[in-house]
Amino acid sequence: MTNLIVTIPGARRERIVVTGHYDTKRIHEFRFVGASDGASSAAFLLELARVLKARKNPFTYELVFLDGEEAVCKDWDECARPGSPDNTYGSRHYVAAARHDGTIATMKAMILIDMIGDRDLDIRRDANSTPWLTDIIWAAAKHQELDSYFLDESRRIEDDHLPFLAAGVPSVDIIDLDYEAWHTSKDNLDNVSARSLQVVGDVILASLPPIETRLAKQSALAAVRHTGVKKPPRKAITTFLVAHHPSTGPGRLERLGGRHKTPKKKKAAASALVGH
């Protein structure tokens, strides 16, 4: 299995990763094309690379064509072993390598695109995904008047984003699972639409500026904590007591250097604190 990685340099080395799987399910009973389940995300990444290349990007973008998302056996987890599921081979390898070489620290967010070719596009929120990333994308869909495709209903989805989430990388899964042709011979060009890819592309591109803004603020706060920059020391407060002393008469000021202190009593002297 082979992951294909495209890097588009940005103003900073911190990365936003956009992924999709390009492998096709191995089915022996019939000819399986995988027009939505595999091909749609690969097509999306190819077009996104063209757009991002011409864009001034504040973050580095890494587009990853993941291999081995599909199970080798027929069902999603049929041939699993303890700690080794029969799926998401490419994403698990990618995250493990990033953890090993330390580059996971520069990975600030991950957007997963999967099965977006359905002519009747319905994308629901994934309950496993990072909430703030999901919220930004759904808000962008509403702003673009494309919220009829991005539904407010939610479900819990197992996909290539799980290894990233487990590594602490904010991640979101954009997927249409309401696809009757899934893993059938009907997952072909007759049941997919270029319009669906355009919808997802428009929403994701509109989401990037607010995602970048949030990540930039987080990086700035992290830098402040790392360098130990502290607030300037608070200025000392000088406190005055207005006291009535027999020797000087009423209204004499005594400077106390910021400490609340009562002057020593002198015979029948009476004093009162009136301000500080």
What does this structure look like?
It is a single chain. This protein is an alpha/beta fold and 276 residues long. It has 2 domains: 4-227, Aminopeptidase, CATH 3.40.630; 231-276, no CATH class. It is built from 5 helices and 10 strands, in the order ββαβαββαβαβαβββ. It has a 5-stranded mixed beta sheet. A 3-stranded antiparallel beta sheet has the order 9-8-10, with no helix packed on it. Strand 2 (12-21), helix 1 (39-53) and strand 3 (59-66) form a beta-alpha-beta unit. Helix 3 crosses helix 5 (194-227). Mean pLDDT is 86; it is low at 237-244 and 251-276.
Q: How is this structure best summarized?
A:
By secondary structure, this protein is α/β, with parallel strands linked by helices.
Instruction: Indicate the CATH class of the largest domain.
Output: Alpha Beta
For the termini, the CA-CA separation is 74 Å
Shape estimate: globular
Topology-level CATH name of the largest domain: Aminopeptidase
Number of strands: 10
**CATH architecture grouping of the largest domain:** 3-Layer(aba) Sandwich
Number of helices: 5
Give, in order, the helices and strands: EEHEHEEHEHEHEEE
Q: Report the C-alpha radius of gyration, rounded.
A: 30 Å
Question: Main sheet: which strands, in order across?
Answer: 1-3-2-4-7
* Whole-number count of domains: 2
Helix content: 25-40%
Question: Segments where pLDDT lies below 50 for 5+ residues?
Answer: 237-244, 251-276
Class from helix and strand fractions: alpha/beta
Beta content: 15-25%
The CATH H-level superfamily of the largest domain is Zn peptidases
Average pLDDT figure: 86
Largest sheet: 5 strands, mixed
